[in-house]
Design goal:
Elements (H helix, E strand, L loop, with lengths): L3 E4 L6 E9 L2 E6 L9 E3 L6 E8 L9 E3 L2 E7 L2 E10 L2 E5 L7 E3 H4 L1 E2 L4 E3 L1 E6 L3
Parallel strand pairs: 5-12
Antiparallel strand pairs: 1-2, 1-5, 2-3, 3-4, 5-6, 7-8, 7-13, 8-9, 9-10, 11-12
Length: 130
Amino acid sequence: MIKFKGKCIDTGDWIYGYLVKQFGKFKIYDDTKEDFGNWIYEVEPETIGQFSGVHVSGVHDKDDSEIYKNDVVRLEHEGNTHYGVVEFGAGSFILAADSLPDGYITLFDITECDREYYWINAEKIGNVHD
């Protein structure tokens, strides 16, 4: 299943899990709860972001290390510091920043892996919806 995050309409907290559209409303089943079926939250549609499959700086097993669409990231690349927003474009997840050549770089181009885990050497600053 594809993982998403979105801001809960009731609390404003970030909810992580699986996205469904139910009766015209977007909801996320919270995958951090043991009783999976009873933890569903309505989320603000404009805050929904898909998990890119990549983490920041090799930090394992933390929601705050996962990189989602609309996250703001600081990246050191080719001797320069770039602040950008994770978006989906050019057929993949990208970091969009005016300071980068072409205005973006694909996460694929800067991702490292150890066969099971994928990360970029960057810092997640927040999200455009914070």
